[in-house]
Write the C-alpha cells for this entry.
Amino acid sequence: MKFSDYKKLRINGLLLEDSEILDFCRSHKEKNVRALGRFMEAWLDENSYVEVQTSGSTGKSKIVKIEKNNMLQSAARTIDFFDLKEGDTVLLCLSIDYIAGKMMTVRALLGGLNLYLMEPCSNPIERLPRDKVIDFAPLVPLQLVDVEDTKLIKKILLGGSAVDPVLEEKVQTYKACVYHGYGMTETLSHIAVRSVNKDSKSIIYDALPGVVFELDFRGCLGIRVPFLEQKVQTNDIVELVDKTSFRWKGRIDFVVNSGGVKLSPETIESKIAPLLEQNFFLAGIPDKKFGEQLCLFIEGEPYSSEEYKTLLNRISIKVTCYERPKSIYFVDQFERTSTKKIQRRKTIQKALEHIAR
C-alpha cells in the first residue's frame, strides 16, 4: 500500500478526489471540515509522514511524525477486524486534529467508506437524522453518557479514556455492538479491542492481527506492531493472558504507595463508581507518616458533613481498609486536556492550592 494511491474520499455521500477534497473543505464553515482539509492537504503532499499532536493526558502534549504508509496498515487492520465494506457509512464526530480523527479519515480513504462528518459534540447520536444508518462510529465515552437510543448505529468503538462501570452497565441495553479500544498516538490509534456488551462481553483486550504483547520488569505492557520499527513501551500495568491478550489494571504513574501497601486507584475506582454520580478519581498525596495517602477527588460542590460521612461509610463496605480514602477533596471543575481527558496531577495541584489559600 502506498499513500499516494489513495486520493479519493467520500464525504457525506459526495465522492471527491485530490484537489476537490481541499476545495470542498476550505469553502465549508464548520471547523471540523476545515480541519479535515488541513489534514488532507498534508496527506496529499509528497512527504511520507504527517504530524500529529498527542493528547497530553499523561504528559506534555507534543507533535510526533507518523508515516502515512503505517497509517494505511493500521487502517487495514481496523477495517478487517470490524468487517467494514466499501460503501459503508462511518461517523466522524471526533476532532481531526488528533490521531483518532485522522485515522478514521485514513480508513475511509483506504476502504472506500462514506465519511459522515459532524462537529464534535457531547451527544452526536442525538443529532443524527432518524433514518441515517451508521455502520461504524468511533466515539469517546463522554459522547455516550446522555444517550438512551443508539438509533441505527451498528457498531460503536469507544476510545480515548476508560469506560466507567455506570456507562458499561448502561450500554448493555443498546442495540449497537459496543467495543472499547486500547491504543495511543504512538500505536496509530487502537491496537487491541474488547467487547463491552452483547454475548461477547469481556474484560480482556484482544490484539488486532499481527500485534504482540510483552511485559517489562515493572509489569507494564510492551507492544510490538508489525508496521512499527520499535517496540512501544507503556506505563500501563496489565495481566497478560497470552501474547495477544491482556487484562488492564491501571497506570503505574498513578499507583499509590501508602505505608508500603501499593494501591491501584483505577481498580478501586471501579468498585466505588456506583456510589457516585459526579466525576471523580482517586489519587495519592504526600503524607509524612505513610509516604502517600489515598484520597478521593470529586468534581462539584462540597457535601454537607452528613453526606460526607455517609459516603465514606458506603465506600467502606465496598473496599478493604487499605483502599478506603483518607480524605475527600471537592473541586469545582477538573482540569482536562483538549480531548476532555482528566488531568489528575493538575487537578490535585489545583485542589491543594485552593486549600492552602
Notes: The domain at 3-251 is CATH 3.40.50.12780 (Rossmann fold). The mean pLDDT is 92. The chain has two domains: 3-251, 255-356. DSSP finds nine helices and 20 strands in the chain.
